[in-house]
Amino acid sequence: MGVPPVVPRCAVWRRWAPLGWLTGCHRSASAQQGGTNAPGVLRQRELPRSAAPRPCGWRPRSRRALHAAAPSWQEVMLTSERYGVRRLPFSRVSDGDVAFFERIMPGRVITNAEELKPFNVDWLKSVRGCSKLMLKPQTTAEVSQVLRYCYERNLAVNPQGGNTGLAGGSVPVFDEIILSTVLMNRITSFDKVSGILVCQAGCILEKLSEYLEEQGFIMPLDLGAKGSCHIGGNVATNAGGLRLLRYGSLRGTVLGLEVVLADGSALDCLASLRKDNTGYDLKQLFIGSEGTLGVITAVSILCPQKPKAVNLAFLGCQSFAKVLETFTTCRAMLGEILSAYEFMDEKCMELVERHLKLSSPVTDSPFYVLIETSGSNSTHDEEKLNNFLEQAMASGLVTDGTVATDEKKIKTLWSLRERITEALTHDGYVYKYDISLPVGKLYDLVTDTRARLGPSAKNVMGYGHLGDGNLHLNITAESYSHSLLDAIEPFVYEWTARYNGSISAEHGLGFKKKQFIQYSKSKEAILLMQHFKAMLDPKGILNPYKMLPSSS
Ligand SMILES: O=C(O)CC[C@@H](O)C(=O)O
Ligand SMILES: [Zn+2]
């Protein structure tokens, strides 16, 4: 990637370069990033240009690379041992069960222990189950058959998409049958007039994005795990991501769902309507239910028009107060074209540089912000952005920065933020907290946690979706330790509850946070959730040990 020679380099303060240039003293990203995760390499368009519905189950881009670099499966302690969990009295998978599944989906029944290993461990290598069976249905009818059988036999089931979850919700705790959506990867329809996409649950988010982009649309959500995560898993966890500020949450953009319930009955709520006020909105029950109420098999989702002009500014700020002020200023000055406002602290930058060999495009600062604009008129958008940047500069809100309009350069800048999670996995064991807070208090939690843990933590850092009031507080240590965990929890949850925050903004509760739900939900609300669970899944076979605390 060439840097325009006319741009002043490495000055203490640089003038803003014309939009579309990456300014400053960063080294060539293409020479340094390498690896299969490098932007541009990973997001090559693989889809043919035809608009016809097609499967979208291409090989995920990033999980392989990450798994290759991380510790081996055997090093991950069994969840049941680490957390002292007792197995519930479900039946155990018998040879007869395997024979039944082989009959209904020949060749798509995995019992080989080696093959099963990656699906028993989460992406973070923090929880591990010991499932002996994975099933790969292709149709809703097959999911129905499987669940009907499991329900009768009292066999526990762990629905699994791309296994990119960060709260331990996507892998078994014991020997639950893994019900993978990996082969449910067909796009059913896309309506260019309404922008409504209907697809199976196992479509990979990035493949959907590529498919839509060919037609002038985008997915309303975007996240770092896009190369592996499945849309069904996104909906099941109500994933937020980088575009929520602009397009809202999946609770608004998902228009319909098809779900198979625990007893195998299929619930068709796959509406493709913007408006539908006929009775309770049942699909909302399954959005964010983390596979505990039903298995999502198909999704109908409203997709925005692809913006014609996208700009990304990467800026350095001297304090968190300036990060906040920059946000209010840019919201006021950019208005409708603001599409993302993300922040990261200097620790995050240090770790992406050290572990991923990415390079910062700006001079070292205590905080960095990424501001994305998306609009339909590049002249108008650039003028607005320039005005904002001049003002931010003149008033000392930001002390350094760079701007990109070129798609490749935008991706390079985004990767500094998107790949923090990956960088942290190379730093040791990661304790992960995904907190919603009043935005003004967001970084205080990082500072207080850092002060509390002192040298017992290797690194404590904060980043996230500032525009959504969502902090990702991450703590690394050489290895997992009970005593460090005890120092963090419930401290972080109590702190969050004190400011009426949420202990899970977008990652869900999964296995790791289910016992702490009471910090964010009232007793009555939890009880009602348990009633819903008991009504829809009376035997509790769907994703047991997750999301809700045990009622006893
Ligand atoms: O790793 C994390 O804590 C956050 C992951 C993801 O939600 C992100 O925003 O990058
Ligand atoms: Zn996030």
UniProtKB/TrEMBL annotation:
SUPFAM superfamilies: FAD-binding/transporter-associated domain-like, FAD-linked oxidases, C-terminal domain. It is found in: Mitochondrion. It holds the Pfam family FAD-oxidase_C. Keywords: FAD, Flavoprotein, Metal-binding, Mitochondrion, Oxidoreductase, Transit peptide, Zinc. InterPro entries: FAD-bd_oxidored_4_C (IPR004113), FAD-bd_PCMH (IPR016166), FAD-bd_PCMH-like_sf (IPR036318), FAD-bd_PCMH_sub1 (IPR016167), FAD-bd_PCMH_sub2 (IPR016169), FAD-linked_Oxase-like_C (IPR016164), FAD-oxidored/transferase_4 (IPR051264), Oxid_FAD_bind_N (IPR006094). It catalyses: (R)-malate + A = oxaloacetate + AH2. Its EC number is 1.1.99.39. GO terms for cellular component: mitochondrion. Its cofactor is FAD. PANTHER family: D-2-HYDROXYGLUTARATE DEHYDROGENASE, MITOCHONDRIAL (PTHR43716). Belongs to the FAD-binding oxidoreductase/transferase type 4 family. Catalyzes the oxidation of D-2-hydroxyglutarate (D-2-HG) to alpha-ketoglutarate. Also catalyzes the oxidation of other D-2-hydroxyacids, such as D-malate (D-MAL) and D-lactate (D-LAC). Exhibits high activities towards D-2-HG and D-MAL but a very weak activity towards D-LAC. This is D-2-hydroxyglutarate dehydrogenase, mitochondrial. It comes from Strigops habroptila (Kakapo).
